[in-house]
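Q: DUF2332 domain-containing protein, please. Structure only.
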Amino acid sequence: MDTAESYRRFATIEAHGYSPCYETWCRGIADDAALLARIEALPPPKRQPNLVLGAARYVGATVSPFPEFRDWFTTNWATIREVVMTHRTQTNEAGRSAVLLPAMEPVAHEQVALIEIGAAAGLCLFPDRYSYRYGDIELDPDDGRSSVLLPCATTGPVPIPKRLPQVIFRAGIDLRPLDVRNPEDMRWLECLVWPEQHHRLSRLRDSVAIARREPPHLLAGDLLETVADLVHSAPQDVPIIVFGAAVLSYLAPEARARFIESVRKLPCTWISYEAPGVVPFDPALLPPTGEAHSRQFILARDGEPLAYAGPHGQSIDWPAN
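A: Structure for DUF2332 domain-containing protein:
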């Protein structure tokens, strides 16, 4: 997929209905040869819309019509490029914990060790500190309602646990971990929240406040080289959960295959939450993706698909069989 098509697809499939600003900007970029030339001069992994637009907002871009944005982008390109080259897409959406919980249901009544790959600031390492709403069902931490409430629309027989797991070990891996105590790191996370999604921005800030009370243990490193050591360093007398959301798509196919092979040999349960096609599976195990699922991720446990889910944890569709 070339750069123009990538931005056009982002506008049509991902931003449409969620961020009018990003939809407008990406449609404009896709048809603008001068802006495309600048973006195409970046290394391929750095051309993705979320990263480029997040960097633009970090530099100072505000919601505006495309012609105004185009002029601003052109004027500030050198600074935007510097941010792009020194940062990564690290959407750290605590709402994804609402999708993680049903996948953890078999061990939800136990103490668990939790390890996240592509952890960013580690906000998904605190599923026991958030409150949840699945339709009429609400779950709260043992000490009462959390300042972070995660609503998740459900379809089908979603296995919602009766209580939250007790996380006794939490750790994460990222090439460039973000520190919840560092204001600039947190400003970067805020710039990765799409314009108009004020509820997600508020939730991010509340999640950061929770994480600051007990900053997670985050390792800087390649997940292929680090995950085994981290699994073996976790308590071995409790279930160990290794999970990741929208992270494996950033690996080259051969590296992705090596990770999948290695993690399945470790003494852990592996939960993935990725776009369709990222983790291979037997299509007979999940109904084929149709119009309703075209914008959703696939939730899987140990390589077996369980459900479709919204990319930010906003919904989960669990097949009856």
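A: Brief note, in case it's useful. The first strand starts at residue 111 and ends at 117.
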